[in-house]
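User: Please predict the structure of the protein below. I'd like the answer in structure-token form so I can feed it into my own downstream comparison script.

Assistant: Understood. Taking the following sequence of 411 residues as input:
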Amino acid sequence: MSVKANTGPEDLGDLSGNETNWPLEHRDVLAWMVSQKSDDQFIDVVFAEMCERLVRAGVPVARGALFFDAHNPQWLGARILWQNGRPGADFRTFDYGVEDRPDYQNSPMFEVGNGVGEVRQLLHEGVATAKRYPIYDELAEGLYTDYVAWPLNHTRGKRHAVTFATKVTGGFKPEDLEYLRDLLPVLALVSEIRLKNRLARTLLETYVGPHASEPILAGATTRGSGFTVTAAVMICDLRDFTAISDTLPRDDVINLLNSYFDVLAEPITLNGGEILKFMGDGLLAIFKLSDPNAAANLLSTINQVHLALEALNSQNEKAQLPLLRHGIGVHLGDVMYGNIGARGRLDFTAIGPAVNVASRLETLTKDLKRSVLLSSAFAKFAGQAELLEPLGTFILRGLKDPIDVFALKGS
């Protein structure tokens, strides 16, 4: 028997035909699941509520987990874990290469991932079946009595998985398992819709950052749309990268550049900054002045970056790789951020006088042989004169009026 189109999303697949015989509470769970809309909450929220509704409907689920492949640039997949009595669900990602690790290969998920249609294990005392996987012992120690895992077959050949465990004496009853099996086609489609939403947001944040992803998701996608923020602007650029690119193999160049960006990105993020743009071998980051500690956070970031760069260069030296040097320019002002480009190819990028000045200061570091240069506007706002060294007044390329330039002491 198929779920009718007027009850929810189309093409939910065939159920067993038993849904007309279900208790009303069971049918209510199904009705709630098929009524989910594609713009509703993320899958972790929906999955947690589904498990809670199952409990209220009399299905003795005490633990539920949803595993899925994502192929995100940052991680391969994730697990959503719900436990009865705890609020919400825990969302945990898995790194690339997890499929080769012993803890994965010695788990029920390895079986499901290799085509097994169901994994079932009674966990309570007296069960003769050998407990093959460590997860069984962990669950038994937590007083769980039964565990079951099923694949969730999504479109495009993706094969995800869902597991349930209970604490009731004797484990799941046959009718409990039959009901849960009947929900799998609906859960597969609902989870796929929610995963697309969650992964789309995560993927967008990976490429444009959280600051830009919010307006894009809210609909700011037309050419010329954008916004302005007042911020401390930080532009970094590697020295001699062209020579490095000409002398090293391609993969070594990419790894070296990624290591350098790791050195920059972690302190920027931890100190409340945001990377707006990677530009070849450089980047543009901002610290919004809505945070009263923005200037202090930026200066702290630079110090942490220098320490991390020293550690990276120590590793590079041992590996007989080039030592990395860079220049940093810092200014203060408005940054215009929006959709700019041709009709058929847009970029969500940052422009404005503040960006131009920071860029010119970074270029000036080469001439003055200092790694960090800051504008007088930033120096005045930061108010940390003991950390700054005045270098004089300079005319920056493309700017009409000269500006006072400061260096970070010790840089």
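That's the full token string. Confidence is low (pLDDT under 50) at residues 1-14.
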